[in-house]
Automatic annotation (TrEMBL), chains A, B:
It is an enzyme of class 3 (hydrolase). Coiled coil: none annotated. It comes from Novipirellula artificiosorum. GO terms for molecular function: alpha-galactosidase activity. This is Alpha-1,3-galactosidase B. Residues 423-601 form the Right handed beta helix domain. Its EC number is 3.2.1.-.
Amino acid sequence: MKHSLTSLLLVVFLLSGHTCTLGAEVINVADHGIVPGKDVTFAVNQLIQDVLDKDGVTLQFPKGQYDFYPENAIEKYRAVANHDNGLKRMGFPLFDCQNITIDGGDSTFMFHGRMVPVTMDHVRGATLKNFSIDWIRSFHAELTVVESNANEQSFVVQVDPEAYPYTLQDSKVLFQRFGQEDPIGSNIVFDPTTRAPLHNTRDYSVNSSRAKVTQAGGNRLRITDAVKKSPPVGSVLVVYGVHPTSRLCPAIHVTNSQDLRIENVTVREAGGMALIVERTNNITLDHMVVTSNQDHLVATRADATHFIGCKGTIKLDDCLFEHMLDDGINVHGAYVKIEKYLGDREFLCEISHFQQWGLTFAEPGDRVALLSRETILPFAETTVENVHVLNEHRFVMTVSEVPESLPDGPMSVENLTWYPDLEMRNNIIRENRARSVLVTTKGKVLIENNHFSSQMHGILIEGDNNKWYESGAVGDVTIRNNVFENIGFSGSQNYPLLASPLLNGAQRMGAGHYHRNIRFSGNTVKSFNGLLVQARSVSGLTIEANTLEFSDDYPAADPGPTIDLDYCDHVTIRANTVTGFARPLTIQQSSDTTNVTIEDNRGFHVVP
Amino acid sequence: MKHSLTSLLLVVFLLSGHTCTLGAEVINVADHGIVPGKDVTFAVNQLIQDVLDKDGVTLQFPKGQYDFYPENAIEKYRAVANHDNGLKRMGFPLFDCQNITIDGGDSTFMFHGRMVPVTMDHVRGATLKNFSIDWIRSFHAELTVVESNANEQSFVVQVDPEAYPYTLQDSKVLFQRFGQEDPIGSNIVFDPTTRAPLHNTRDYSVNSSRAKVTQAGGNRLRITDAVKKSPPVGSVLVVYGVHPTSRLCPAIHVTNSQDLRIENVTVREAGGMALIVERTNNITLDHMVVTSNQDHLVATRADATHFIGCKGTIKLDDCLFEHMLDDGINVHGAYVKIEKYLGDREFLCEISHFQQWGLTFAEPGDRVALLSRETILPFAETTVENVHVLNEHRFVMTVSEVPESLPDGPMSVENLTWYPDLEMRNNIIRENRARSVLVTTKGKVLIENNHFSSQMHGILIEGDNNKWYESGAVGDVTIRNNVFENIGFSGSQNYPLLASPLLNGAQRMGAGHYHRNIRFSGNTVKSFNGLLVQARSVSGLTIEANTLEFSDDYPAADPGPTIDLDYCDHVTIRANTVTGFARPLTIQQSSDTTNVTIEDNRGFHVVP
């Protein structure tokens, strides 16, 4: 009997496909002089260096606050997608290792300068768990409006100089952050009662280069010549600097890795995103939290999580993302410009967006699609044989075969191998600037049982080759049984679901449809503006059994049709219910939308 | 007979110690598509990559202009001493190779962007010859003064917008250079008749941050609120930007290399120095020229040549360096701060000057001296066993032995192994901002038969641990039979020879003398100010058989003693001759100067 059980366990273990970590070493970091109350950076860097070549080590931190300073930190030049590249000093430099676990024991890792707390590069099978990341000082400043003079378009803010030390010079305010002097730069007004961006916050946007800032006594600053409309007294102007120094410090940077887990990790602050992941195969976030600490309204300077050029499965369970200055999650690939066909199956390629410079776009063996740069519709597929990186901006890509004739117009390329599946269950994303979810991937997407309450779109399925260059026309998306609450409280025409390539500049719709097979069903939408779904260039769209309930949390608004279809095909709108609105809600479709079935809905008015 | 001769040649060859390059390959670059009239960057980068592992290759360029653009250039993050570190795009990326020769065939290599034309890193036995380096656009701007209003402290300059495109914004002028917008920043007024900095140019220095710049019609700009004294009509205000974007592009960067030759190479422009050399063993410059092209008064943004932490012999023969915005040559080591003794023979060290960050200060086997940070006098020597680089700023150095007790005061360290000999013969350095020669090295220095005419000191033997952190108290310097002409035409108290540690801030003189054994003899000094030698903390100084002739090229001046001795020992002043001065010239010595012999001089007056 006993023998059989052992055999069975062995079989199960072998079948599970995991790397062997039985008997793995657990290191109490206190045994290496890593204790609260001092700068542990050097000791942590050193201990990591010493264990990198071991398989299956756990670094166990006894609970406490551990302080990290930049002075003695390991540094490397790093390209970080969607951030500002540069020399990065690191708290946990995890390079080329496998099955390492950082178990924080519910500790706080407190950072004291411009650092990247965690870097994972060529890591297999790592787990980060049970810690929070915070900084001793914010990468933004929160300024409370104490006087608002609508007629003069000027207002006065109160600054806490302990939290946000500043200098005034030539009518400009500069915030001192970790050795830098940051101007106002990007900014948004928050509402301290909702801990979210103020309704219609765009009205109060400060023109940083035009703003004149003068002393108004007692750490109060008067801001003039900068706004169309003065923000109300009691609201909080959040200012967060300018490129190329405002996105230097994501909390966690992952690249070229696989089989990772982030579990019970909280990020309270970051000079960038909480988590940016590049070219990684399988990653699970379980109870990851991004939130502001009690002293601040705002958490991270940018997105909670962002994934570019990944594969395998991205899985998010039971996460909470709130108070960020950008999106909750964004999953996409990259459209890269083909600068020139050099002949001999070689293409000179140029990474299009400056915050993708340095990206590993492709490696030998990857399948890529060649596309029209204007319609972003593919005309050929081929396999990468070699990539010769010239600089962060350009590379030469050799492929296995090239079509007999290439189109006359401009071309782009996307990597088909590196698109992930996405599974999101039981997550909350709310009270942030911008969207809850952006997703463009050719993988299978399942978004269910989540709660979304974002200022702009709830879920944006976009894709563009003219602004962010985020690729990945979708092919299989299910969005079901989620709650969308007060989506679009920015006051613009923001939908719980918008699926449309971004068409601007030279972009235009091609003959084929861009996105395919999107199912939006069983969702509960609590709404002050009556918006549900906008779709353009989608073939295969089902909007089914959703409930749209009127909410009076924000002033009622009527910014557009409830369902808006433009150049879509095979659309089913069935069994949706509207309750509580004082006006009829509309379904609108363009004349080139085809094969639409609308049935059994309650409370809609179909516009011909 | 024949046999014997062959044997003899073989013996001579073997004894000469050169690496075998018989039968070395000569490649005509035209055979690889590298021809004038197109962007050759990619092809040159590629060809270099293909030959790096060969020994003794010559790349032969047929005469012509070859154009290099940054778009497709190979790029690496590079720390470059005395420059601004960052991503560098390269024309000739020479890494890890030996006995390569780049023979330009008298061609011009024309650069079209922010690039480093030549990089040599871990190169043995290379030769660069027969080419000139130029840029399509300057890293500075030359603005001709067309109106000068002394009473208003304002003036008007004429700008050539083709050569120096600019924008005006908020009363500031920004010059567009290769994608950057550079403010006035550093500046100096040149005299177009002498093609050198104007006499007393400091009077006209423009305060860039205070300056108000407005349109004065027809590409004329009025500059107000910026100068103590308006520069004269006809003079040329040269403006050259600010750190950290004003020293990104030296023309030639050499590091960790040995046995190099630069021969008949001309540098007409650089966004930094013409040549910066780090940690290199033996380098010869023969007929190297730094000069401005016909369109400009000014050549390089910084020094003609600069050597930090080298060994072997630095040899300069028949070079011409003129019209630079900084020194002709500077040879020195680095004083590095000891932040903390960590115990176990480990020192936490910090590179002191921000433009030395990233320097390879030492490697295992190097002898280093530990010194008082204040007096820069050594108290111990030891050998480096390990260097663990933490970041560009700090490293941990393990040494073989540590004194039983370390001093209480702050400590520094210098590298004794990496000090070179310097031989300079038959060179001309003139018409530049700043000095002709700076040299601090423990090696043997011979400077003979050169012609120097610089705005500040002729030869500066300094060393400091509080500003530039340039180490290398000298021990054997001979300066003979040179001509010094109008040294110090900046108008300050600048000497043909100044030998003194820079004492400022916390620096102070120690009990021992800092410099030793300097001989200044047989030189001809043509002077409007009657200055010859100033020395402080020198033991062993001979000033002999020099001729000091009055020159009326600049207004006669009397800024200080002709020979000025402060805390010197063993000084001989013998057989020097003064002619043509209307006043008696003085020799002055401090009361703590000892063992002075003054004899057989003509035209001097000794001040007690």
